[in-house]
Amino acid sequence: MRQERIGIIGAGASGIGIAKALRREGIEFDLLESTSRVGGNWQPDGPASKMYRSAHLISSKRNTQFSDYPMPDSYPHYPHHSLMHGYLESVVASADVQRNIRFDTTVTSARHDGSGWRLRFKEGGDAFYGTLIVCSGLLRRPSIPFYPGRFDGETIHAVEYRSSSMLDGKRVLVVGGGNSGCDIAVDAVHGAAKVFHSTRRGYHYMPKFIAGRPTQEWLMDIAPEFSDPDAYWEHVTQTFRLAGFDGRDFGLPPPDHGIQSAHPILNSQILFHIGHGDISPVGDIVQMSGRGIEFSDGKREEIDIIIWATGYDPDLPFFNKSDFDAAEDLKSAFLKVASRRYDDLLYVGYLNTPSGLGNVGNVLGSFTAAYLQGRAGATAGWQKFQLLKRENAPVDLGQERFMRTKRHSHEVDLWKFIKTMNFLSAKLRQ
């Protein structure tokens, strides 16, 4: 079997998941990290951090942990971000990954020379890898939508938000209806003079606990009781409404989609604070003028600071676009993982599921190891996989159930994805 060294870019959760899988299989690799520690977005501070002081996991620890490295029993159901970072550090130590990490190593150039990848580093030097695995993540470049007019107040993106003390005495507008937007709006209540929350549509809201259990675990546990998916989702919707989690009861617009068609918004406090007048919901921004903002629901408010909780775009700056349009290659990646252009290039961590990273992380680690072994051994399974990729064979990852929005372009159904990737992992080794 041909041996080659693998380059992994990014020592966040995805990169760690791949590294521990390769270590288990005896595959040599370097884990290239631009900062001085692991954890990526979960670092408590520094240039890679996306954390604010009160941030906790949105998915429960059972759904977030790697099953082969469970979180400590002492951790709560939804750990604080500092505990999550400590957990990732412990996985690195337990999986014996630390010795393969090159810290303070920023990739500035990645070029294919016909036989592999030549990488150059900001700190000096270069390295060659037979296969490149990019794990730098979806949360890279802040995305801020355009709105007409000019706003004269302060603006920050969610990535810059650190605590409600930044907002003392200010009239704050949080833009964005996803989990970050809801979490920051709730946190802002503790410092701001007034909080407004702007969303484009109605949403389904889920509590973080139902029937005494973390909601995502409850959803998984009751699923076997239903043979009809529609009946399952109807039961879920009615349960949440009876629990007080229907936005329409708080004057919010009705959702224009089914509860199963969007990434879940898990927040036990957003409707509570709306009901108590701490957060005032407003529609989409229509026009900005000075510090006045007009909204699609006819409201107009004077705002001191806007927090854009409007997501991120992937960023792969180390690829030279004149050589290789990596952004387009990523969009069309087979199974959202395998490059269409290069057999020795994988993207890991560029998808979302309605659950946490743990199950997906282990599955992607196993798939990546199988992919590398199949390619190195030129197995029959590898040849069949290449044929599937070249012919763009239809593979059901459950994407049809999700809304056709930018936010959901990376979404897959958890169980369909796991089933497909486990099947292909087994075949690749044959």
Main sheet attributes: strand count, strand direction, barrel closure: 5 strands, parallel
Instruction: Look at the helices and sheets and give the structural class.
Output: alpha/beta
- Integer average pLDDT: 94
The second-level CATH architecture of the largest domain is 3-Layer(bba) Sandwich
Structure summary, number of beta strands = 23
Count structural domains.
2
Q: Specify the CATH homologous superfamily of the largest domain.
A: FAD/NAD(P)-binding domain
Question: What's the helix and strand layout?
Answer:
Elements: E1 6-9, H1 13-25, E2 29-32, H2 61-64, H3 81-94, E3 101-102, E4 107-112, E5 117-121, E6 126-129, E7 131-134, E8 141-142, E9 149-151, E10 154-157, E11 171-175, H4 179-188, E12 194-198, E13 205-206, E14 209-210, E15 213-214, H5 215-222, H6 229-242, E16 265-266, H7 270-275, E17 279-282, E18 285-290, E19 292-295, E20 300-302, E21 305-308, E22 312-313, H8 326-331, E23 345-347, H9 357-377, H10 380-390, H11 414-428
Helix pairs in contact: 1-9, 9-10, 9-11
